[in-house]
Amino acid sequence: MGSISKSYSVIIIGAGISGISAAKTLNDGGINDIVILEATSRIGGRMNKIDFGGQVVELGANWLHAGEGPICTPLLEAANKIQLNTIISDYSHVASRVHQQEGGLYKKNEVQAAMNTALTVQEFGAKLSETNQEIDQEDMSILDMQRLYKWTPTTPLEKLVDYYYYDYEDGDSPEATSVKHTLPRREFDDFGDGQYFIADLRGFESIVHHFAKQFLTYTNEVISDDRVELNQVVVEVLYTNNGVSVKTEGGCIYEAKACILSVSLGVLQSNLIEFKPKLPKWKRRAICEFSVTSFTKIFLKFPYAFWPTGPGTQFFLYAHEKRGYYPIWKHYENEMPGSNILLVMTSGEESRRIEQQSDEVTKNEAMDVLKKMYGNTIPEAKDIIVSKWKSNKFYMGAFSNWPPNYTRQKHAQLQAPIGRVYFTGEHTSPDHFGCVEGAYYAGCNTGKEVIKYLQQGL
Known about the structure:
The protein is α/β, with parallel strands linked by helices. Helices cover 32% and strands 21% of the residues. The strands form six sheets. Strands 1, 2, 11, 12, 13, 14, 15 and 23 form an eight-stranded mixed β-sheet that branches. Strands 7-18-19-20-17-21 form a six-stranded mixed β-sheet. A three-stranded antiparallel β-sheet has the order 5-8-6. α10 crosses α13. It is globular, with a radius of gyration of 23 Å. The protein starts with a strand and ends with a helix. One of its GO terms (biological process) is polyamine catabolic process. It comes from Saponaria officinalis (Common soapwort). One of its GO terms (molecular function) is polyamine oxidase activity. This is Amine oxidase domain-containing protein. FAD binds at residues 18, 38-39, 234.
């Protein structure tokens, strides 16, 4: 029998941006009798910096959306306030930076033609989505929409361009992605189409700390507030009409009037946390039928830069007959001159495959691709690090994606509380799922819901 640590007004499980924004909202609303239980040794969740090759890189979330959109998010305001170093991601020259499978660049006009076709199809999909919303028409996958337009990518170049516009953005294939709920791109419409790449020694997670410092105690830049307990792996949530009891792997028991689950969707879909009583069937279905993506970032450190640098070279692409095979590349010379670091990103089946193999095999595969692009005389990578969100038991996925025929009503069920247990996270955001902004707003909204619930005296 575990010992009861203390009784609280609210227990928050998970200290990512959603958990912290929920906790801050509670605190701002006068509810500071809370405890935040975090399974890992740090706060920030999938906003996670790591030292690599003498620099700091982001294993998880890396971009802020900003630009001419109507909404300026508190995240962007925070980034500006703490003077977070960001670099606008420049994709404007990418059409002239596409490598063929066996070497050599595609002609720019050939790539641009393929991109123009893909964008025309995407615009068709966006209009179809808006029409379907208006008449409450059934959903379809992006792949089905492409077939309806009578366009399906078949060549390596077409597959790459298709990947660039969908998989790279959604973390999943067009076959697994809803037209109705991903087109048009709400994050671009709302926040602007500028994508600011975080490249700061303090990491993207410093934004989480910025919000945390507004209500938690820090000593020498380290959280020293006893309302945050790290390395506390929650294994059981017991809920009744009278309250919630949470049990950790170490046997500690916490009790509260309400509980906010800010764990990832992948964790909810797993058996890591047992609910007593079992969640209702409708809730379990809503959780299990939403999609969790696999998105992998591979960082390679070299003795020197052998790739083109300067204006218009930030990103370069690789077309392969196997969809998503080491497709999107980026160098760090703009953000970190002299770092000699390359980043390659992939998702879906390729991401899952790469996570299951050794880093040495991954390095060899990446080097083979680089040799196709830049010749056999390039130096070997000195070091490699591979993000493995899908196989990390505390996340079990990179971010969520909206699958075809998953309705708004079902998503409302995904969001819905069960008694005194509330659910938050980027996956609960109906319009901005899969991104940091959605995670932040979800936490704020859940915090407000819990305040209202507690103020009713229930």
